[in-house]
Amino acid sequence: MVKDTINSEDPNYFQNRELSWLDFNARVIEEANDPVNPLLEQLRFLAIGSSNLDEFYKIRVAGLQDQLKMGVVEPDTKKQWSAKKQLQEITKKNKDIVLRQYALLQQKEDQLSEKGVFFKSVKDLNETDKNRARDLFEKEIMPAITPYGIDAYRPFPHLGDGVLHLFVKLEKSGNPFVAIVPVPERLARVHSIYNNDHIYLLMIEDLLFTFLSDLFNGYHVTYSFTFRITRNADLEIQEEGADDLLSAIEDYLEKRKNGMAVRLEIDKRETAVDVQSDIEFIKKALSIKQRDIYIIDGPIDLTFLTEVIPLLEKKGVKEVYESFEPFYPEAYRNSSLYELARRKDLFFHHPFDSFEPIISFVREAAEDPRTASIKQTLYRVSIDSPLIEALKKAAKKGIQVTVLVELKARFDEANNVHWAKELEESGAHILYGVKELKTHSKATLIVKKEADGFRRYVHLGTGNYNEQTARLYTDMGLITSNNEMTQDVFDFFNYLSGYSNQPEYHYLHVSPFDIRDAFIENIEKEIQLHILYGNGHVIAKMNSLTDKKMLLKLYEASQFGVKIELIVRGICCLIPGIPGVSDNITVRSIIGRFLEHSRVYYFHHNGEENLYLSSADMMTRNMIKRVEIAFPVLDQSLKAHILSILKLYLYDNTKAWVLQSNGEYVKSSNSEDKLIHAQKELLAIRASLPSPLPEKKSKRSWSDRLRSLFFTS
């Protein structure tokens, strides 16, 4: 069998990554319309959509705008679009998505009103409640407000990134004046007053509109409106020649505060007059393009909805997800994880499995006098990280602690600078990563001096060492004492901390480049075995799929008849179902309660079944611009269990979106007799399981329980 050669430059075979990301955000926003989600959780999805879009503009759109300004003519590698064309297409698609987002917000407001919760303007309140609103304004808002006039002596003020501002038009003695009023970020965006059984939610900007005259004594307020800008955060960190990367990062953080404006949002609801001349004034002051101006018929920045949810919960609106307790087997609580890991690899699937054993893994090492060293990579950690405390404690006890703190973790730079300093002060050895690369791998190595000599223990994972996000993101990890695997991780850390070429590993694949090479080799092997046996099968679960070499290799495998099932949460530049090219490929995206973050790669290999977990997506940045790890699952029972999880996601007909050959996503049909909701099923199954250790086996294995979900009626 000989495959037809495809034109790798044909734009019809690929989706633009920026538009694909916007499709992902549209799916997130659409969760606000899914009755499976409780009402307050639907509000949360609207907030997440806004937060996602802010970051998209700060990084991706800002980068394209920079290309345009610098005259870069090189098109994107998929659709062959210029930066200008991409910006035009982004605006076209995103404006439709934003319209849908605000239509859903109105729908949610109507549903809240049925429960006695109302978003109110002060002007619509009765006199008693108006007086309460004034009292609230005078006590909780006005003392923190500083208005800025604009004239020959008072220049246009600096506008903070993401900060709400009021543009105010004033008049005195027939003369016009302009002022801008920033709304301090530390003030609550939403305030509430209660009237019998009703809750009235008042937006801070509406309170300011109503009582603006208090800020401009002697002037008449003609009109005002709210606006907000987003600034470029896609700045280069200048590593070349930096004697101290820590100082370079701190300098970069200061510069980022003053990045160029990349988006202007305007809330038009309070303006009965034509404000186009005022918009032109702001537009000129910010040097912003018309395409990047959004006129919104609603409150700007829906992230404020995250304030509304706990407020309403306290007042008795309980329509949120049912709380759950991650599975934490008694065996892990009552026994040393190190003793257990000597007998069997330990598998974790968060948040269904507790993250506490991972913390205990480091804490126990810090307390054990036999511990010789602890080494760990940290990319994103929580503000009050218990892992940091354990590492500091170990260092103070004289244990050799080596921590690679990735200072270039986007939007976590300041947090990581803080932890790097604290760890260094405690006596830990701190590494700041690899020059020109981000270290995105998730690895911990513990070395102990035991009765039979030194023994190494390792944790490897797909997600960050962050106990808070471990309750919100799905991730997988292993603790193992396998000699060759732990030797690999030992060599990996020595590669990071010293001077040496990339080691030869037994099991690990480490980017830059090696992970992509390994996956391409696995796909080529799958093709060859499929030619011989006709049972080729690849399953891959990841956050995003953009790397062109991987796309072309997947197309090639499809042309040979290999069955390829992709679970891609976010960006997917591959188009399935193209006759003769990708008709053996399916793509689905799971959007639900938990952010699907685990990366799993399965190759059938005629029953040999190679299965890898990884910190890396199939993205070019992960393959050649980062230090990432892909590691195999060696234990056959764990491999079967993970494969069952993958199949459960493939059978999900409740939260899955299926990518069509025209590039559109369609919600998976749930017309089947049995509804499958993967995340919900995993919560239920995992909570019912006993300890996963040999002496306490369940009568039905975890894989059997999973299979029963979609093979029985």
TrEMBL record:
Keywords associated with the record: ATP-binding, Kinase, Magnesium, Metal-binding, Nucleotide-binding, Phosphoprotein, Transferase
The EC number(s) this enzyme carries: 2.7.4.1
GO CC annotations on file: polyphosphate kinase complex
Keyword Phosphoprotein among record annotations: yes
Superkingdom of the source species: Bacteria
Post-translational modification: An intermediate of this reaction is the autophosphorylated ppk in which a phosphate is covalently linked to a histidine residue through a N-P bond.
Binding site for ATP: N52, Y473, R569, H597
Catalytic site positions: H440
Domain Polyphosphate kinase C-terminal residue range list: 337-501, 508-679
GO MF: ATP binding; metal ion binding; polyphosphate kinase activity
InterPro entries linked to this entry: PP_kinase, PP_kinase_C_1, PP_kinase_middle, PP_kinase_middle_dom_sf, PPK_C_dom2, PPK_N_dom, PPK_N_dom_sf
A single GO BP: polyphosphate biosynthetic process
All residue ranges annotated as the Polyphosphate kinase N-terminal domain in the record: 14-119
Enzyme class name: transferase
Catalytic activity: [phosphate](n) + ATP = [phosphate](n+1) + ADP
PANTHER family according to UniProt: POLYPHOSPHATE KINASE
Similarity section: Belongs to the polyphosphate kinase 1 (PPK1) family.
Task of the protein: Catalyzes the reversible transfer of the terminal phosphate of ATP to form a long-chain polyphosphate (polyP).
This protein's name: Polyphosphate kinase
Organism: Alkalibacterium olivapovliticus
